[in-house]
Specification:
This protein is an all-alpha fold. The protein contains 8 helices and no strands. It is globular, with a radius of gyration of 19 Å.
């Protein structure tokens, strides 16, 4: 819902807010750049702690960033872009965190199935997010886009924190290393068959030592 609303409706917000085409493109670029910059640091840190705490942190950053945008508006373009930078830092990072967390509790041969299921859920959210945000923008104005994104981030962070009380952290032996996964409409479950860990699992099942000739 977050990424679907952002990717599809931020250009609408930029136009309604009176931003130039160049400024609208800058908003999108800053969010993507910050997402690229912060995805690896957040992922590597999640390798060392319970990933759900990092997901909770991401939810908090996204919520606060959206609140800042709602309060500040675009009156000061530099403050607005700074808030967008922090929003982008988690907006494009949480999907990879979700995949890593799910795979922590999955066997290697289940990676493709788990990732395929996550892609289905992601696709449903991508459809629902713009519908909800678009309806809110029609009723309350274009800035309500960030109210929808912020509320979704809050739900995401709170649920992540709630889950820390429902199940323990995956053991060190079961935890996988974080892998940066870009969100793309072109991805399918077969994309994850390219993951070398899947090949390694298959070789181990067949009794072949990985790397042996």
């Amino acid at each position: 819902m977050i990424s679907g609303s952002w990717n599809n409706l931020v250009p609408v917000f930029a136009q309604d807010a009176g931003l130039s085409t160049a400024q609208g493109a800058l908003v999108l670029a800053i969010a993507m750049i910050s997402g690229a910059v912060f995805q690896i640091p957040l992922g590597r840190y999640s390798d060392r702690v319970d990933r759900r705490y990092v997901m909770t942190f991401a939810g908090a950053v996204g919520t606060v960033s959206c609140i800042a945008i709602l309060l500040l508006g675009i009156g000061n373009i530099y403050l607005f872009l700074a808030a967008v930078f922090f929003l982008g830092s988690v907006l494009f990072s949480i999907y990879s965190l979700n995949v890593a967390h799910a795979n922590d509790f999955a066997d290697p041969e289940e990676f493709v199935a788990v990732s395929g299921g996550l892609l289905i859920v992601y696709g449903v959210g991508t459809m629902l997010g713009p519908l909800l945000a678009g309806a809110m923008m029609d009723r309350l104005g274009s800035s309500s886009l960030f109210a929808v994104i912020g509320l979704t981030f809050a739900c995401y962070g709170l649920y992540s924190y709630y889950r820390t009380f429902r199940r323990g952290q995956a053991s060190e032996d079961d935890r996988i290393d974080f892998q940066a996964i870009p969100i793309s409409r072109a991805q399918t479950p077969q994309t994850y068959e390219l993951d070398p860990r899947v090949d390694q699992s298959t070789e181990e099942e067949d009794g072949v030592t990985p790397g042996a000739s």
